[in-house]
Here is the input.
Amino acid sequence: MPRALLPPDMARPLWSAAGLLFVGLAALGVALPILPTVPFLLLAVFCFARGNRAWEARLLAHPRWGPPLRDWQQRRAISRRAKVSALTAMGAGVVLTALTAGWPWWLVTLGVVSLTGSWIWTRAE
Here is the structure.
């Protein structure tokens, strides 16, 4: 069995700190429409599962954010509403890039959005 890079008593605070960082980024995502919220919360849950189980449980029990986090954790599912919201925001990003950066840079954005958008759309609901 491979040895851990850090002993558990040193790794837990680092996992917890990373979880707090991702919760902070998720909080910014609530206010900034271009920044996602749930993906950062998913990363926070991942980190808290390794650093602070109580904080993980609090996130999973949250009335607003808990259900999508549990759906992803249990079934790898994304609700239709979340899919439509994500794809709409991504489409707006492509349009904004086309208006501000122009040719050919908006094609890069379109390519990334096409790949990630198709991945999002094909997840279970």
